[in-house]
Design brief:
Elements: H1 2-13, E1 25-28, E2 31-46, E3 64-81, E4 86-93, E5 100-110, E6 113-120, H2 126-130, H3 143-151, E7 161-168, E8 176-183, E9 201-203, E10 209-218, E11 223-239, E12 246-263, E13 267-278, E14 289-302, E15 306-318, E16 329-342, E17 346-357, E18 363-373
Antiparallel strand pairs: 1-2, 2-3, 2-18, 3-4, 4-5, 5-6, 6-7, 7-8, 8-10, 9-11, 10-11, 11-12, 12-13, 13-14, 14-15, 15-16, 16-17, 17-18
Length: about 375
């Protein structure tokens, strides 16, 4: 409790500063450099495995984590060519001591139609696939939807994949937009290639891939409705370096979500529901399935500056992450988050989170995240 109060005082002290607006660095009218950084302060986070380690004197280790963590530092460049007919976006990640490529794509557009190639997040669930980490209302995305989305891909490790996406309309602003993607389905950015091209996925039947379709409908400025359906099916695919063991992948996901501003820029609600099902022939999750959902509400205590957000979520898992195909294990998740904004350039989030797995002790965290965006 003392750590929570200390964090509140630190956030309140920021109220004395005037807001400033963020803006990407414009190289010229058609190209810009952008990015954001996030640092996490753990005020008190359960670390229950600590008591399984002992000091030289035979004392148990601590069960609470306190300190700092670099979450993300991402920067990129995007722009248009040929008067906007061609566009591109490249994003790098440098937090954690190494530099790596996160996303990249290039495409063509004509009116409301577009098509792009590269590495991106297909629309599997709105929460995990279509929301930016810099704009989250809670410090993390819903844990259940994150796990469900990752499980769609063969490597169960990344929501990003290599492939093609095309669509109609801008999901951020147009009244109606449709998105369709064809990607490898392997996740973790694994490339496909045989004797000539080479790749981590050595062989793969023609047409075997991950297909996803999504819809976004805006409700007259008050909110939006989203829906998606995705399937990832491969028969006899071979991963290079695994003794050429052929595998089958058979997974489908559907999701529906909505957000609604009861009083615009003051009081809002949102939520999402998703379900994944694996077939009996799936190499990793035979006959497994999982459901995840959340509901959330937010209110601005000080217009545009101080926002209070509460989220309740549930994960019901039968063999995807925990439990077994014939036994469902549920996990309840609750967060209360206080967001403070200095324009678009600076954000502080203070959050209390608790997770309650069925049949196990709950674990909690009190954290503060600092973000700068340009």
């Amino acid at each position: 409790m003392r750590n929570f109060v200390t964090g509140l005082v630190a956030v309140a002290a920021l109220l004395a500063f005037a807001p400033s607006e963020a803006g990407a660095y414009m190289v010229n009218d058609a190209h810009q450099i952008y990015g954001y950084g996030q640092v996490l302060l753990l005020l008190s986070e359960d670390a229950t495995e600590g008591d399984t380690v002992q000091t030289a004197g035979g004392e148990n280790g601590k069960t609470t984590a306190f300190g700092f963590k670099d979450r993300r530092f991402r920067s990129g460049m995007k722009g248009d060519l040929l008067g906007g007919a061609v566009y591109y976006n490249v994003m790098m990640e440098s937090a954690g001591g190494s530099v790596k490529l996160v996303d990249y794509w290039f495409g063509v557009r004509g009116g409301a139609m577009y098509a792009q190639f590269g590495r991106f997040r297909p629309f599997i669930t709105w929460e995990e696939s279509m929301t930016s980490a810099s704009g989250l209302k809670n410090i993390d995305r819903d844990a259940g939807l994150t796990a469900l989305t990752a499980a769609f891909f063969a490597q169960n490790a990344s929501s990003r994949d290599l492939g093609l996406k095309f669509g109609f309309g801008d999901p951020a602003k147009d009244p109606l937009s449709l998105l369709f993607s064809v990607t490898n389905g392997s996740g973790a950015n694994m490339a496909v290639g045989g004797d000539v091209s080479g790749g981590a996925v050595y062989s793969n039947a023609v047409g075997d891939a991950a297909y996803a379709v999504g819809l976004v409908a805006h409700m007259g400025g008050h909110g939006q409705f989203t829906a998606s359906y995705a399937m990832n099916k491969h028969n006899g695919a071979t991963l290079a370096g695994t003794e050429l063991t052929a595998i089958d992948i058979d997974r489908t996901v559907y999701s529906v979500g909505a957000e609604y501003a009861i009083v615009p820029q003051f009081l809002w609600l949102d939520g999402e529901y998703a379900h994944i099902k694996a077939g009996s022939n799936d190499f990793d999750f035979p006959d497994a399935e999982m459901t995840a959902w959340f509901v959330r509400a937010g209110i601005f205590l000080i217009p545009t500056k101080l926002e209070l957000v509460g989220r309740m979520a549930k994960e019901a898992d039968k063999g995807i992450v925990h439990g077994a195909p014939d036994h469902e294990r549920t996990t309840d998740e609750t967060e209360v988050t206080l967001n403070y904004y200095l324009g678009e350039a600076f954000k502080v989030q203070m959050e209390y989170a608790t997770f309650s797995p069925e049949g196990e002790s709950s674990y909690n965290a009190i954290r503060t995240q600092f973000q700068i965006k340009f």
